[in-house]
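Input for the complex:
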Amino acid sequence: MATGTEPPATEDPHPSRGGVRTTTRAAIDAPHLRTDRWWLAPAATAAGLLAFIVYSTWRAFADTDYYAAPYVSPFYSPCLAERCEPMRHGPNWEIFGSWWGISPAIIILIFPLGFRLTCYYYRKAYYRGFWASPPACAVAEPHKKYTGETRFPLVLQNIHRYFFYAAIVVAGILTYDTVLAFRDEHYAWGHMGLGTLVFLVNIVLIWAYTLSCHSCRHIVGGKLKHFSKHPVRYKAWQLVGKLNARHMALAWASLVSVALADFYVYLVASGAFDDPRLF
Amino acid sequence: MSSYDAHFKVWRGDAEGGGLEDFKVEVNDGEVVLDIIHRLQATQTPDLAVRWNCKAGKCGSCSAEINGRPRLMCMTRMSVFSREETITVTPLRAFPVVRDLVTDVGFNYTKAREVPAFVPPEKLGPGEYRMMQEDVDRSQEFRKCIECFLCQDTCHVVRDHEENKPAFAGPRFLMRVAELDMHPLDAAGETGLDRKKTAQDEHGLGYCNITKCCTEVCPEGIKITDNALIPLKERAVDRKYDPLVWLGDKILRRGSSG
Amino acid sequence: MSVVDRQEWDVVVVGAGGAGLRAAIEARERGARTAVICKSLFGKAHTVMAEGGIAAAMGNVNSGDNWQVHFRDTMRGGKFLNQWRMAELHAQEAPQRVWELETWGALFDRTKDGRISQRNFGGHEYPRLAHVGDRTGLELIRTLQQKIVSLQQEDHRETGDYESRLKVFQECTVTRILKDGSRVSGVFAYDRETGRFFVLQAPSVVIATGGIGKSFKVTSNSWEYTGDGHALALLAGAPLLNMEFVQFHPTGMVWPPSVKGILVTESVRGDGGVLRNSEGKRFMFDYIPDVFKEKYAQSEDEGDRWYEDPDHNRRPPELLPRDEVARAINAEVKAGRGSPHGGVFLDVSTRMPAEVIRRRLPSMYHQFKELADVDITAEPMEVGPTCHYVMGGIAVESDTAAARGVPGLYAAGEVAGGMHGSNRLGGNSLSDLLVFGRRAGWHAAEYATGLAGGRPVVDDTQIDAASAEALRPFSAEGPAPGEEDGKPPENPYTLHQELQQTMNDLVGIIRREAEMEQALEKLADLRVRARRAGVEGHRQFNPGWHLALDLRNMLLVSECVARAALERTESRGGHTREDHPTMDRDWRRINLICRLTDPTGGLAATDPVRGQIDLTRETTEPVRADLLALFDKEELVKYLTEEELYE
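Predicted:
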């Protein structure tokens, strides 16, 4: 046979049996022959993401128990409506005024949500876990047609880098919140509670996740053709590359930590728990 | 040295049809699946068709699906299976079957031809090329590819959708585009060829939904998704979806960045 | 009139490894319509297994290097039996061939100043091997493959057809070279996938089919290495040269059994790996032959210092030419100082940090991890000699790569003889492929396009005979004319195993007269039985049938090796006689030439004494004076006879 001169596969006489069951391919009825527990990973991913969606939807719309001085829930920061609880020195700027009638979390959550929704890791996770496209490697997907990210709406995934820029700003604000957490409930500086630790862990993970982003890796150096002419950016690219290798782990860790930080604030704000002061 | 009889199911047939056939076959210490297939040939089925060459994971000929997973037969040790397990070996299921474990991989050669070759810089003669190691590292990783086509086989874009084959080059050849785009001396830009753009417009980069199966099956451990496909997507964004970069390039009159 | 499909080409290249592809590129660039035929898929050739690098005196790492030094090393490595003009051309042109690869997109490892990095290797005085980690062969094949694709893209732009001027027929096997009188007229081949026969008519045929390793049991070679090109040339009336010289690479894997023979690259030693026996001793210090005494370290300390400071220390004896190291390992194992699985220990784990090993020897790390469950960063490897390369091959003209006596036939790469003498240096193979691949393509194209009107004609009776020969295994049940009835067909796999065992045991790394005579008898017996090799099934991708056809070639070349080895009563390079253990200066000028006994190409001879092969001696041309002047007199004395020196 010559290289690549074969005529293209002729029209499939049984269009209903496409994919691995296309008639030109080896006649095997099973959609896959995997014997391992291939369904475990997508199922766990779907369950984890679903749990977060349920929790975050409840908290985002709750519009209550999101501030317990000096802690503000990361879901509600920055708080941009007049209805926000007053936080001294906190990031509550009344940009949206009094007309905003629902939970102020909705205004800001769009950014981290968009960042994670268009993130290269989460895309893999939900394409596999929710959309079964594919459910696992070499396991036939149930869809008849597939156009990937070539069309609206999925072509919008290409704006990931703008969400990355936004995520930098959000992470900056959350860093500010963490600094504010070094106060006590009377706004006196130089104190720390258990919540401060929770915030510290969270902000480190948020930054690590944000900086491990593939878009970030591209922007800091990946786009270059000659690293040798840009030694500083090359170093930065290598550093981001190291983080990037752990993007999945960081995506999950920061997802859990941000929910935990919010939950901690909820517990303290609702009075269910007293923030233990360390000093 | 201990040996035992293993239970194999091997797909036999051709384009007209076929099915899994059962075999009992001896297995010795340290053997790989390809050894067992060879033993079948030598003792039970002399006409069992199979491709193989180097037997050391360097040529990428003996690609097949073992218990449903795309793998090289020469690099799949029998010790990863329990002695009771039935081991199922089928041809690659994304390509037309020729006979038994041999498939028609012509798709890949067609795609290879559609990627414009390396364009040598005009001003440099042989022996005058100077490239720094850090500048060739990325493309070198992609050049480790042994063209076993397991990534092409596992990629659901074509595995599950025959109709996407004309539009989609597949991970191996998108990686080739990335390799050339990252080559420190590729002069495609000077000839008016923008690989970042054609990756999406002509080679179907947009079909990739980065679900990483290509990386998962790569026997060379190349990080196809993270190091080739996603960077290529980002490069395409530079050209097609990022007005800031576009504006910056216009103002600074930079043909290619860096 | 035969019904097989026919096509007309200018140049047909048989084999798509480094030499074949380089020849095809050259022929096409010189205007010849070129077809390449290969047994495997395009890009899978055995060249991918070459690990260490391409030897070329570019002087990037040590500026003292130049072509004269490379020439010297090559002649020393080959124990002065090399066809010296080939060694000269090779040393002179190798750098150009490597640089050219860069312009086609190859990415070699770099020096600090951005040039091609070069590494040390056995027998090379300076760091000389351009490399990419330990996968240089893959880089070479891929680069040539991609160059071919780029030429096809060019043709597509001009003619609308990718394959108008350069076409690869992959998974096809050539079984006969067709001739018009003394001239080549084309090839007869079958498509492995469909089993269909076809003929490519062409005035020029370049043979680039590689080696013969599959005739031996323990080998680093793949199934393709069945000596096809050697046999095709013999059958077409061309002579083979010095077939007794078979290189056993000192370091092949010895365990597990299924990978026995697979290569462990010489770079492991070039980068600092050492050989130890079961007593933990670096035994190579005991095996430095007199001719190399001044060039190699006498103590472990000096050897170790050499890696850092090569100018003031001599290299460790682990880096002696391959034949020396292979013999030493063989001797250690025989003396009972071998490793548990019958090899010796090759250790890098105590010599380099794990991270460095993984970076510099990635595919070795991978290979041992995956195939033997051995972590080479933590424990030593077990290695032993494995049949690796045949120095002998088709006798060719040095400058044109034209096979002697058959106009239109060319040969390049491992299948061609002469270049490496009695022993090939590591790294000289890839450069050989490029230098002589190009020359073969060049002269094949020149010859083909220069034939004004008088193109040779394909003879139908030859096609019919070739078809009948190829179909024979399917009708093996019935007795062939002139044979006695009642014998069942032979299993080709069994025959192949017996052949491999015979060659391994009787014509292996250490040879004895009686054993080789025994081998010739066994070969005669196998030849008779091979005529009854039968296969089941049909012609579509039938490996049993393919093997039955390849047996003819393996039996032919095995007989050449055995006969030549029996004839040469000395030990030199890749030929070691226990009964004649020393190198004999008188033998240096002798080439052994194998020809088919029946010049019509028939294979009727089954008599073990007479066999199929005629062996003759030939005296070589004296080495040109200016090349001899590159050596010290004291050194030449070891190789050349008094009268040669006197001249």
